[in-house]
Specification:
This protein has helices at 24-43, 52-64, 71-81, 157-161, 178-187, 215-221, 232-241, 243-250, 305-308, 340-347, and strands at 7-10, 82-88, 94-101, 103-107, 116-119, 125-127, 143-147, 150-152, 171-175, 189-194, 199-207, 257-261, 283-285, 296-301, 313-321, 331-338, 350-360. It is of the alpha+beta class and 364 residues long. It folds into two domains: 3-97 and 274-336 and 350-360, Barwin-like endoglucanases; 100-266, Barwin-like endoglucanases (Ribosomal Protein L25, Chain P, Beta Barrel), CATH 2.40.240. A six-stranded mixed beta barrel has the order 3-16-13-15-14-17. It has a six-stranded mixed beta sheet with strand order 5-9-4-10-11-12, with helices on one face.
């Protein structure tokens, strides 16, 4: 789907199903997280990742935040400054999935129990695109290896697991289970629980640049797993039953992710694109070919009852993240939070849905 196949049609807030019932104060709080981060980047002289009209509203939101003390105030703000838009494209519905931050047992050193490494970013890894654009440009190489004579494709997942980076001292932490390590890469962040009860939050710090391949989709297309039984837990079980078979399947995904440990204030939550702290049930990963980071998006997914209640999922979210598998004008990945409960929600979320994108009103 190219940007020329997509258009945005204005509508009224009254056309948004269950708009009045949403918690607009929670949405405004998530929006403010983006506002502060975008303004920080602007003050630091970094390239803006959002259009000027949206940046203008981030300044207004920050200036107005002390006066927005209720859900009603927040709703007035959104309705005063934005116009909702349908997303028009070839399909009647988009697709909503979910992601989360796993909590995984691990060790800072290799032990008899913990033998699967999580690696730091190598010094010779070079970005070809900004990290905020890696999802939008995921069909081509996004990172490469710098060499004495130029650049070349980085080692694949299989090559790295077979020792392509061994001896470079890149091991950040060690995990017990290679399936847990694989899905840590898929989720992009995690909390490592050490045997002494302490924890460390680690986050995405680059990838080897190869396009992402969904292992679940590979197994379905190959006739190895029934589509109507696919969930995150079922997939993990399948991969663990026969280790060589599971390893071969996981290596269909040549993409490999590197991590860093968060410390201080930054360690307080999982981070999205541009290091935006994520908010449970309000942060949305999007395709930045169509939606600027920081944009409020009202997600309507009536069948998504396990995450939204009996009427489904109707929630104002904020575009705060990207992902290699998130491609399309109505393709959204909902961040559900940290731990097992969030994982259960994310693992069974694959539902049709629609976006109502809130775009800034023209300045009169």
């Amino acid at each position: 789907m190219s940007s020329t196949d997509v258009s945005f049609a204005p509508t009224a807030f009254g056309a948004l199903p269950y708009w009045a019932a949403d918690d607009h104060a929670a949405a405004f709080a998530a929006f403010m997280v983006s506002c502060r981060r975008l303004l920080e980047r602007a003050r630091d002289g970094l390239k803006p990742d959002s259009p000027e009209a949206l940046l203008r509203l981030t300044r207004i939101a920050v200036d107005s935040s002390g006066h927005i003390t209720s859900a009603a105030d927040a709703r007035v703000f959104f309705e005063a400054h934005f116009t909702p838009h349908y997303v028009r494209h070839a399909e009647p519905r988009g697709l909503m999935t979910g992601y989360y931050e796993p909590v995984i047992p691990g060790s800072r050193t290799r032990t008899e129990r913990y033998t699967v490494p999580v690696l730091r970013r190598p010094a010779d890894l070079v970005n070809l695109v900004a990290e905020s654009e890696r999802g939008a440009k995921a069909e081509a190489l996004t990172h490469v290896r710098r060499t004495a004579t130029g650049t070349e494709p980085y080692a694949t997942r299989e090559e790295i697991e077979e020792g392509a980076l061994a001896g470079e001292g890149l091991e950040l932490v060690w995990l017990e289970d290679r399936v847990d390590a694989f899905f840590l890469h898929v989720q992009g962040s995690g909390v490592i629980l050490f045997d002494d009860g302490t924890r460390a939050r680690i986050t995405y710090d680059g990838k080897n640049g190869h396009p992402y391949t969904s292992v679940g989709r590979y197994l379905i297309d190959a006739g190895l797993f029934p589509a109507d039984q696919m969930s995150l837990d079922a997939l993990k079980d399948w991969l663990r039953v026969d280790i060589p078979r599971g390893v071969a399947a996981m290596r269909q995904n040549k993409s490999y992710v590197f991590f860093r440990e968060l410390t201080g204030e930054a360690a307080g939550s999982a981070l999205g694109a541009m290091e935006i702290p994520l908010t449970d049930d309000r942060s949305l990963a999007v395709d930045t070919r169509f939606h600027a980071l920081g944009t409020p998006v009202y997600v309507v997914a009536p069948a998504l009852t396990h995450a939204g209640g009996q009427h489904g999922f109707h929630r104002l979210m904020v575009a705060q993240d990207v992902g290699s598998a998130i491609r399309g004008a109505e393709r959204g990945d909902i961040y559900f939070g940290t731990g097992e409960a969030a994982g259960r929600k994310a693992g069974v979320t694959k539902h049709p849905g629609n976006f109502f994108v809130l775009l800034p009103k023209a300045v009169s």
